[in-house]
Write a structure and sequence with these properties.
Blueprint: H1 6-11, H2 14-24, H3 32-40, E1 54-55, H4 63-69, H5 78-86, E2 91-92, H6 109-116, H7 131-146, H8 148-167
Parallel strand pairs: 1-2
């Protein structure tokens, strides 16, 4: 989720800064658009309240653990974080448990389906998904809640293999 001052963006020719940064990395960035924006505008980006960018995975993380993972979370109080979870304005579906995939068990899939039904894309079939993988991913989310280092271990040992394999391509 981005909130951009477009006048300032244009005045400062941010597009050129983004393209220059991307070229300086030879296009070898894991998350091309996000890494380019974060690298080009480092120190100038301010976090939005999680209410306006509520990652669905937040549901499974303890606030203290998120603060340990990244100090930027400390800019939001624990109560503010909880309130964002109770009343998110914008849900950010991330991770592999996305509601448009068949077999997902995402807690917020019903909200997604409810609002999808109000769009021109209502009735669009879900992407094929591996039900076993979706169930395992969902269990990992609950494992995260019960034992946060569990997710860290899985992310470090398996997630980084995926990241590194993508860097090489």
């Amino acid at each position: 989720m981005l909130l951009i001052d477009l006048n300032r963006w244009r005045e400062e020719n941010v597009q050129k800064k983004l393209l220059d940064f991307y070229r300086s990395k030879g296009g070898k960035l894991f998350a091309g658009d996000q890494d380019t924006i974060n690298g080009s505008l480092k120190g100038r980006i301010r976090p939005l309240s999680p209410r306006y960018n509520y990652f669905t995975n937040y549901r499974y993380f303890h606030y203290r653990h998120l603060v340990r993972l990244s100090p930027v979370y400390a800019l939001i109080t624990e109560n503010g974080f909880r309130e964002a979870g109770r009343h998110p304005a914008i849900l950010h579906f991330m991770g592999d448990e996305r509601p448009w995939k068949e077999g997902n068990l995402n807690h917020y899939r019903r909200a997604y389906d409810k609002y999808l039904a109000k769009t021109p894309w209502a009735g669009t079939p879900k992407e094929k998904g591996n039900r076993f993988y979706m169930a395992a991913y969902h269990l990992m989310n609950y494992g995260t809640y019960l034992c946060p280092p569990f997710r860290d271990f899985i992310s470090h040992h398996f997630g980084m293999k995926l990241v590194n394999s993508r860097k090489g391509s």
